[in-house]
Amino acid sequence: MQPDASGEPGLLRNRRFVLLFGAQIVSLFGSGVTTVALALLAAELAGPARAPAVLGVALMLRILAFLLVSQPAGVLADRWPRKPLLLGADICRCALVALLPLARGMGAIYALVFLVNAATAVFTPVYEATLPEVVGRTAYVRAMTLSRVAGDVEAVASPAIAA
Q1: In 3D, which of 139, 98, 110, 131 has the Cα closest to residue 42?
Q2: pTM for the complete prediction?
């Protein structure tokens, strides 16, 4: 790798980082759009009078999934091979999204919201544990900064894209 202006190898010249970061961006936007779309679908099915409550439940399920799953996923990231965990989380999310047309009723939609976010809660700590191996200690802070920026952009852009 060629050094950047700081004299360190450039992150965007690190093929493994670019692939991993690209996977994170796709995963973030996919899960963010899916969660918002599922919440909006649930609100539409519930009708205008119940829509605020339904959206609240859907967003609460998103947070609950992260609270319940992200800590054990961090332990898994330390004990199991990370690449299969990352791929498994993304494949799981894809499969759950494929079930969307079959979702009938609020319970199914709530279950999909929870499960999509549970898979995301697995991906996130595994991704963060993988970064130091991919970029090394010297570039870790810059890689983590890019990762956080991607997460923040997703949080703003996903609702707009989903709507």
Answers
A1: 110
A2: 0.80
